[in-house]
Amino acid sequence: MHFPHLVGLYRGDRTDTLIVCHISNFLAGVLGATRGRVLLSHDTMRKQAGTHPDLQPEHYQVLPFALSNGEYRHDTSRGGALIIYVDDIRYNSTFRVFLKCTGKRELYVVSFNRMRDRMARKARNKPFPIIREHL
């Protein structure tokens, strides 16, 4: 992920889509995408600034690690994947990412936030099938 691009999206200086990382073709296929490229849009960053103002640009550097190592759960009711990632290196926090596949079969991050322990337990207890365990 190109950090200056992310900062530009965060500040509103850029409006072009950011490539966050690439996930495996297997995970992409399960979610309905044709390839594993994961994107983050300007619109999502604007929404995030309003709903999660506690997250600074540095927190978004966790996204590639969350997508590469987190637990993937298939949320068929919302048509995407809930990813739960425990970051015990930098922030000592649990993060939640929600990925969605578009009509063009591309993957987008639509939500990213820090979770409290109680919220993480609640999310893990939901009956969503586990696509991949946390690495």
Main sheet characteristics: 7 strands, mixed
**SSE order in H/E notation?**
HEHEHHEEEEHE
Envelope shape: globular
- In terms of DSSP E residues, the strand content is 25-35%
- Estimate nothing, just give the exact number of structural domains: 1
Number of strands: 7
Quaternary state of the chains: single chain
Rg, alpha carbons: 14 Å
Query: Strands of the largest sheet, in order across it?
Result: 1-2-6-5-4-3-7
Structural class: alpha+beta
Low-confidence stretches: none
The count of helical stretches stands at 5
> In whole angstroms, how far apart are the ends?
20 Å
Mean residue pLDDT: 94
Percent helix among the residues? 25-40%
Give descriptors for this structure.
single chain, seven-stranded mixed β-sheet, 5 helices, 30% helix
Please describe the topology of this protein.
Blueprint: H1 3-11, E1 18-22, H2 25-30, E2 37-40, H3 42-51, H4 63-69, E3 71-75, E4 80-87, E5 93-101, E6 107-115, H5 117-124, E7 130-132
In short:
The chain is of the alpha+beta class and 135 residues long. It has five helices and seven strands. The model has no long low-confidence stretch (mean pLDDT 94).
Written description of the protein model:
This protein is an alpha+beta fold. It has one domain (3-132). 30% of the residues lie in helices and 32% in strands. It is built from 5 helices and 7 strands; from the N terminus they run H-E-H-E-H-H-E-E-E-E-H-E. The protein has helices at residues 3-11, 25-30, 42-51, 63-69, 117-124, and strands spanning 18-22, 37-40, 71-75, 80-87, 93-101, 107-115, 130-132. It has a 7-stranded mixed sheet with strand order 1-2-6-5-4-3-7. The longest helix is centred in the middle third of the chain and has 10 residues, at 42-51. It is globular. The mean pLDDT is 94.
